[in-house]
Please model this.
Amino acid sequence: MDGDGKLKVAPINSLGDWLERVQAIGEVKRITAPVDSDLEMSAITYMSGQTIGGPALLFENIKGYPGGRLLFNPFGSSLNRVAISIREDLGKDPIELVQILSEKMKRRIPPKFVEASTAPVNRNIDQGDKVNLNKFPAPTMWPRDGGKYIGTADSVITSDFNTGRVNMGTFRQMILNDKQVGFYASPGKDAVLDRETWWAQGKPAPVAAVYGLEPLLFLTSATSFPKDVSEYEFAGGINGAPIEVFKSDITGLTLPAHAELIIEGFSYPDQTCEEGPFGEFTGYYGRPGGATPFIDIKAIRYRDNPIVTSALMSDWPANECGMMWAMAKAAKVWTDLNSMGVPGIKGVWSPPEAAGWGMTVVSIQQKYAGHAAQVGALAAQCMGGAYFTKYIVVVDEDVDPTNLSEVVWAMVTRSRPAQSIEILRETWSTYLDPSLNPPEIRPWGSKCVINACKEFKYIKTFSPRSLLKKETYDQVCARWTELGFEGKPPKIKNFEAFRGEKIS
Ligand SMILES: Cc1cc2nc3c(=O)[nH]c(=O)nc-3n(C[C@H](O)[C@H](O)[C@H](O)COP(=O)(O)O)c2cc1C
Ligand SMILES: [Mn+2]
Model:
C-alpha cells in the first residue's frame, strides 16, 4: 500500500494469481514428465532445493492422478517469493522486508463474506459416498513416513466453541483412507485448544483443511498470532484488503472462497488413529507414530483440476519451513517487541539455516543498563518467538542479524560465556525436537539467551572496531576498476567515526 491506501501491485486473490506473478520472474518450474508421488516428487524437490533461491515446482503429470497438479515448496528458499506473497516489490534486503512485514502484521482487516455459490472453490462439492480423498495427489515424502501427507502447506480451520473465533493453523495431515485424515497438532497449538472446547461440551469439533491455497494464507497459518484473534484478520492486514470467505453450510466454519481444495468434517474426542512418523522441519523424523485424533470428512470442495500445495520438510535449504518461517517469525517477534514498547530494535532475524524456527537474532541500539538482557528475555518468550526456539542472540546495531558470519563474530568478540548466557527452563517446545530424550520429557524444552552486545557498563571504553574511514572507502570505490578489480566494489556499512581525538 502507498500513502493514499491504494494497492501498489495487482491484487493476488488466488493461487493462480500468485503463480502468474511468480512465473513472470521465472521462479516456477513446471514438471510435465511423469513422476511418482511415492518418494520421487519429494526427492526431486529436495535435490532441486539444494540451490538457494531455486524455483517452486509445479508437478503436472503425477502417476495415477490424471489431471492432478501439485505445487511443491511455494516459498522454498526464495526471498522473491516471500516478497510477492506479502504484496511487496522485489529487490529489498531481507531485514527491510522483515520490517515491512512486521508493520503489516500490526494491521487487522476482517474477512469479507461472499455468497457460497460464487466461491470458486465450490465449483465441485463431493459429499456422502462421493467423498474420496484419494482422488487428489498426495506425496509420501520420506522413506519412513507413515503414509501419504496431503496436508503440509495447508491451513486447518477450527473455531473456539465459546467465543466463535476462527483459527487458521498449518498442521500436517496424513491420509488414512478415502474419508479420513489424521489431525496431528502439538500441545498448546490453537487447533488443539479449539477442538477441546467442543469436546468439553460433548460435541464433535468441526474442522476444515485447505490443501491448496494462496501462499499468504499459508504464511499466516504457520505464524503464531494472538490466540484470541483470527488469522483471517492478519492475512487481510498484510493483503491490504479483506480475504474473501464464505460460511459453510456443513460445519458452520468460515472458509476461503478462492482456495483450490478444501475438505471439511468433524473430529471426535474419543477416537484416534495411528499417525506418523513424518520427516519433519527439523530434518529428522519427529515423534514415533502414535494415537492422534482424525477428521471424518463430510465434504470436499474443489476447483476444476485443483492444485494441491505441499511443503517438504528437511534440512536447509530444501526446507519449506526455512525462508518463510525466517521471515514470518522474525517479523512477528519484531511486532511483539514493538507492542511491548521496547525501544532501539534495529533488526530481527530467524536464520533459515536453524530449521527456520530454532534461533532468533535481534540487533539493538543499547540505550540503558539491562536493555540487552530485557530484549533477549522478551524475544525468547513473546508469542511470536516462544515455540521451539533454542538460541536467542542479541547483537549491537552494527551487526547485521541476517548475516550469520557477523553474528558469530559478535558472539566470540563481545560475549563472555560466564556472564552473558542465561538459560530458561521448562519452556514451550514440541514432541518433534529430536534432542529431548528420553521422549517422555517432551514437549518441554529450554532456551539459551546470549547477550552478544558490547558490555553496556564499558561501552564507552570497549575496544574500538577496526573500521575503514569513509573517505578512504569512497576513494577506493572510485578507483576499483582502475585497480584491476572486476564488478562492483563490496558494500560496507560501518565506518570509523574517530577524527583524531585521543583514545583513552
Ligand atoms: C509446513 C508446516 C507444517 C507444520 N505442521 C505442524 C504440525 O503438524 N503440527 C503442529 O503442531 N504445528 C505444525 N506447524 C507449525 C504451526 O503451523 C504453527 O505453530 C502455527 O502457528 C500454528 O497455528 P496457531 O498459532 O493458530 O496454533 C507447521 C508449520 C509449517 C510451516
Ligand atoms: Mn492461531
